[in-house]
Fold this protein.
Amino acid sequence: MMSKSTIELMNMEFYAYHGHYEEEQRVGNRFRVDLWLEVDASAAAGSDELEDAVNYVAVYECVREQMEIPSRLLEHLSGRIIAALRRRFPTVGGLRLRVSKLAPPLGGQVEKVSLITED
């Protein structure tokens, strides 16, 4: 019997060098990533073995690796993260990703700007 579950990795925070402007690429900024993965948890629920589950550490490392590669746009960054997750975790069903740039340089006080992508 299939057990549909959602894994959430919330508030992953990274210092990275994404941005359209040269200064953003040079100075960097703080980013927050939230991720929801739909999985079939039935095998892991029955076995209690990590090899039957999506390994949260491996998911985090996949996101971290992509965050280390500079992108000019959040859309490009998000696309790379999703593609990397799809390659590494082909059994994942639906995927929802939110990438937020904290305190973006918009000329006024803004907490964050976010891009939400569903795949």
Remarks:
- The chain has a mean pLDDT of 94.
- The helical segments are 22-27, 42-47, 56-67, 74-88.
- The first strand starts at residue 4 and ends at 16.
- The CA atoms of residues 84 and 101 lie 20 Å apart.
